Amino acid sequence: MDALPIMAPALPEMFLAVAAMAMMMVGVFTKPERAPALVSALAIAALLATGGLVVAGGTAFQLAFNDLFVVDRFAVFMKLLALAGSILAIVMSEGYVRREGMNLFEFPVLICLATLGMLMMISANDLIALYIGLELQSLALYVVASLQRDRLRSTEAGLKYFVLGALSSGMLLYGASLIYGYGGSTQFGALATYFSTLEEAPVGLIVGLVFLSAGLAFKVSAVPFHMWTPDVYEGAPTPVTAFFAAAPKIAAMALFLRVMMGPFGGLVGEWFQIIWFISAASMIVGSFAAIVQTNIKRLMAYSSIGHIGYALIGLAAGTEEGVTGILIYMAIYLVMNVGAFAVILCMKVKDRMVEDVSDLAGLAKTRPGMAAGMLVFMFSMAGIPPMAGFFGKLYVFRAAINAELYVLAVIGALASVVAAYYYLRIVKVMYFDEPAETIDPIETRGLRVVIAGASVLVLGFIFYPSLLANNAALAALSLLQG
Questions:
Q1: With contact defined as beta carbons under 8 Å apart, do 87 and 247 qualify?
Q2: pLDDT for residue 479
Q3: Which residues of the chain have pLDDT under 50?
Q4: Which helix (H) or strand (E) holds 474?
Q5: Residue 416 CA neighbour count, 13 Å, CB half
Q6: What does the pLDDT read at residue 440?
Q7: CA distance 428 to 416
Q8: Is 355 exposed, middle or buried (0-12, 13-18, 19+ CB in 10 A)?
Q9: How much is the pLDDT for 351?
Q10: HSE-up (13 A, CA, CB side) for residue 114
């Protein structure tokens, strides 16, 4: 049998791996002043080409590498979201890297390598493939977080992320080893077949499932494994924080879904309580902890924790409708987050990047267009209709109610009300406070396009929701049938 057809499902990942290595060589042999811009352009082109290959590969169910790697409509949907997040992160970083001592060609290369890990995570069909993809993403992210080596906060963020990431990897591996010991295989298909024959799951298997869930919960920043998120978001360079808040979350959520709904789909009764707890805890902690934050990056960190809690409601439901709700929610979450961080990246105060909520005081008077964009994103995150964020929550809450998870749905609704306070506080500061400092606009063409595009998507979802909803439903169906 020819090697190429066997490897065809993984062609996008192989292309991106080769492209990343080629970009590294281009950066090394190009003049230092030209290398960063050239490699960034090549990285965007490589990621776009990878997206094209993902689409060209089709949505049919395909296996590769002795069933370690799977491609289906679910994988295509989530890969395109992750690639979009990575491309936007590079676009938004354009002006920042030149001004803030990050004008290094390694930055876009590391983004590409992290994205390669994400694509492998999304298509993982084996516990070993899962771990390889997870670590490839994580190792690149550790370096990106501490890329500003001469700044204490950046190096501290990278170190914290690395130490806690190593702990979570150990927990995940321990859980995987227990699952292998009881299931006799690392492949998801074989595990699903074996677990479906069990009348009662052994205690050791449940312990392994708990440890595996803990490792995955760390990657999505779910409570109680969220402790790294505020510190890393605050200490990392702002474009890196924007990247952390978007693409890696999507890939980790895709992996969470594939693991729980795949090999452990027949053990919903065993893992339901775990997901219920981390979903409720994430919504509560994300909502209440953000109220006292004055640093906007820490506020966005707790916001992301809360949003992951809302998304996990769909997983707790354990139904096709719940998975559909998660996919819709993560797509909308990507747009909202990228738009909000693009606004933050557009401004400086006293020769430093905007970081405190108070820095936005009177923005509506000095930069009305920027304030209007931020208002749209804050309203959407708060779940105020008719913004897209409202419909994202509507889909997951409806799945919870149909699955009779009434308490979880009520917790989510109350957490949304609490969270609205700190989102609307930002709006209040922009529109009703007097300008405290002179804000210097530093927006690039790429940032303006990102803000405008994200605003249109957030506002326009109500007019044509079927495009996203129908594709998400088909993706969810392919995951459950696979």
A1: no
A2: 87
A3: 1
A4: helix 466-481
A5: 23
A6: 64
A7: 18
A8: middle
A9: 67
A10: 31
